[in-house]
């Protein structure tokens, strides 16, 4: 062991570094040229016991480089007596960090430092020009970063994708900056969306994909020879996790859009990417071929926004087709799905019930799944009958009911928009008056800064609110398209004559369940169905219907909303 250590003492470390930015500066900066130059100079200095440490493709503003870190480890172990670089910029382009190593770290470890082209040799004493050269090297890195950011911003504002293609897409070999659909993973993406709309949660989807031995995105890219960031040391390349599924379901790019500036870095020295607020994103619609149609994507987003990662199960582990659709009429919270194993009863109850779940809702809102099934089936059959008898009258009914809701909502939104705009004008005038009072001396600088900051925060919040309201008002123009989609879904039900989770997701927005009223034979329970795109439909009066859900128990259904 002693002889091994002795053989390593006095090693001259030849450190070579090249980043992508430096590679365009000069051919002389190539790793091979740096190594040849350093080996030649080492011989001239009489330093024969050399070892080369290389970082190819690493920026000089970050010192967490594998070759550099290995050199530091060898220095700490006492193996290295001299460090030689082509010039100070090869060591790094951060003035503070380079100064730390040359002025503190190397002297503390009795390491001689030589920068050949800059004529720096610690054996000759301090070099007065070295700090200035370090500053110039950092300014070079700052200037390069500024140019790269400017080019990045320009391309991003033109709609050129700034990120790698997401799972399901690949780069077009014939056109730079364009994505094309990658058939194999694109089918997996479609399957994930389909499984979610069928009622499966993200955890269930991950489990299904794992059972079917579908490779995770990183493993697929690796199998195709594509370099992507991420940990490749997976023991199972088909082990999906919830976060991956969740991210795919949230990826708007699958609609054919390009979204730039989702993340940002604070400075050229800090490479950590931070989440950018959505108002700073740049969205370009229909740039490439979609994998998921926009209506399906928006439906999935609405479900993702409402649901928690909870998987209500029956005795066979399956979800109810009504899960996430039933809500409490009193508190607005979802109804949870349960299965009574001793009695074989499937039922729903308010998740916010104060009795069992320590919530705030005073009533349980208990309702059996088979009762809900019969009521929804009867209601959809009535819709189908009306559509079949007189399609024009039914379409007119849809337009009348949906336009009524849209008109009420539009009126409310326009009122909120007007209030926000008026408040924004008031805030702007107040800030201007505050500034004039500060200039005239009526308001102190400290008080002015405090109030100005508060008003600026409010102004930014008002700006975001105005944008959100205008987006909602703009989206209301798609009412006719929504009604056509609803009619198409009713026609599919006419062909199927059965209820499925995907069909319910297309037709129904929510089902409000009220608490049971009365006792014995006089017991009644109100259920109100709100349809997607059209809201609640006040259909023509029909005769009461009674359906047996199980032996000895019947559901009486009056297809007309009771008075509130």
Explain what you see.
It is a single chain. The protein has 564 residues and is α+β, with helices and mostly antiparallel strands. Among the domains are: 2-151, Resolvase, N-terminal catalytic domain (Rossmann fold, 3-Layer(aba) Sandwich), CATH 3.40.50; 169-306, no CATH class; 326-389, no CATH class. Helices cover 47% and strands 15% of the residues. It is built from 17 helices and 20 strands. It has helices at 2-8, 20-23, 31-44, 66-76, 88-91, 95-108, 130-157, 183-197, 202-211, 217-223, 242-250, 294-306, 369-389, 391-440, 445-475, 479-496, 501-507, and strands spanning 11-18, 50-56, 80-85, 112-115, 120-121, 169-171, 179-181, 258-260, 263-264, 274-275, 282-284, 326-328, 335-340, 345-350, 367-368, 508-513, 527-531, 535-536, 545-550, 553-557. A five-stranded mixed beta sheet has the order 2-1-3-4-5, with helices on both faces. Strand 6 (169-171) and strand 7 (179-181) form a beta hairpin. Helix 9 (202-211) packs across helix 11 (242-250), helix 13 packs across helix 14 (391-440) and helix 14 (391-440) runs antiparallel to helix 15 (445-475). The protein is elongated, with a radius of gyration of 34 Å. Mean pLDDT is 78; it is low at 1-8, 23-27, 308-316 and 560-564.
């Amino acid at each position: 062991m002693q002889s091994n250590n002795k053989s390593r003492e006095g090693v001259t470390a030849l450190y070579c570094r090249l980043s992508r930015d430096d590679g365009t500066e000069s051919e002389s900066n190539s790793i091979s040229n740096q190594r040849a130059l350093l080996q030649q100079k080492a011989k001239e200095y009489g330093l024969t016991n050399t070892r080369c440490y290389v970082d190819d493709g690493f920026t000089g503003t970050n010192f967490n480089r594998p070759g550099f870190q290995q050199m530091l480890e060898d220095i700490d172990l006492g193996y290295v007596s001299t460090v030689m670089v082509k010039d100070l910029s090869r060591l790094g382009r951060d003035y503070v960090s380079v100064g730390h190593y040359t002025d503190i770290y190397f002297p503390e470890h009795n390491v001689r430092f030589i920068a050949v082209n800059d004529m720096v040799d610690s054996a000759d004493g301090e070099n007065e020009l070295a700090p200035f050269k370090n500053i110039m090297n950092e300014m070079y890195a700052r200037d390069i970063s500024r140019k790269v950011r400017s080019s990045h911003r320009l391309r991003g504002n033109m709609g050129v994708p700034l990120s790698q293609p997401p799972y399901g897409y690949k780069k077009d070999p014939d056109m730079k900056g364009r994505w094309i659909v990658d058939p194999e993973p694109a089918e997996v993406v479609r399957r994930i969306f389909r499984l979610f709309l069928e009622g499966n949660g993200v955890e269930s989807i991950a489990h299904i994909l794992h059972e079917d031995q579908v490779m995770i995105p990183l493993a697929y890219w690796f199998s195709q020879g594509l370099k992507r960031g991420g940990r490749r040391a997976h023991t199972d390349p088909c082990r999906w996790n919830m976060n991956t599924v969740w991210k795919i379901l949230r990826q708007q790019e699958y609609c054919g859009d390009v979204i730039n500036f989702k993340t940002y870095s604070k400075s050229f020295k800090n490479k950590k990417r931070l989440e950018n607020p959505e108002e700073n994103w740049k969205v370009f619609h229909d740039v490439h071929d979609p994998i998921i149609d926009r209506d399906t994507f928006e439906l999935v987003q609405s479900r993702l926004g409402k649901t928690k990662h909870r998987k209500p199960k029956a005795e066979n582990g399956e979800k109810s087709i009504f899960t996430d659709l039933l809500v409490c009429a009193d508190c607005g919270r979802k109804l949870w799905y349960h299965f009574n194993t001793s009695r074989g009863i499937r039922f729903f109850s308010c998740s916010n019930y104060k009795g069992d779940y320590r919530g705030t809702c005073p009533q349980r809102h208990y309702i059996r799944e088979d009762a809900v099934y019969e009521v929804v089936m009867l209601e959809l059959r009535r819709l189908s009958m009306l559509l079949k008898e007189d399609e024009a009258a039914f379409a007119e009914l849809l337009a009348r009911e949906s336009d009524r809701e849209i008109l009420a909502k539009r009126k409310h939104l326009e009122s909120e928009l007007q209030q926000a705009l008026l408040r924004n004008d008031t805030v702007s005038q107040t800030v201007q008056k505050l500034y004039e009072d500060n200039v005239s001396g009526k308001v102190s600088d400290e008080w002015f800064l405090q109030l100005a900051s508060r008003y600026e925060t409010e102004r930014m919040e008002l700006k975001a609110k105005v944008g959100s309201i205008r987006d909602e008002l703009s989206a209301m123009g798609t009412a006719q398209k929504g009604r056509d989609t609803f009619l198409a879904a009713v026609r599919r039900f006419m062909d199927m004559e059965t209820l499925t989770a995907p069909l319910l997701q297309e037709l129904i927005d929510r089902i409000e369940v009220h608490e049971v009223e009365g006792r014995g034979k006089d017991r009644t329970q109100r259920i109100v169905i709100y349809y997607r795109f059209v809201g609640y439909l006040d259909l023509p009066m029909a005769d009461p219907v009674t359906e047996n859900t199980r032996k000895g128990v019947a559901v009486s259904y009056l297809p007309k909303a009771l008075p509130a």
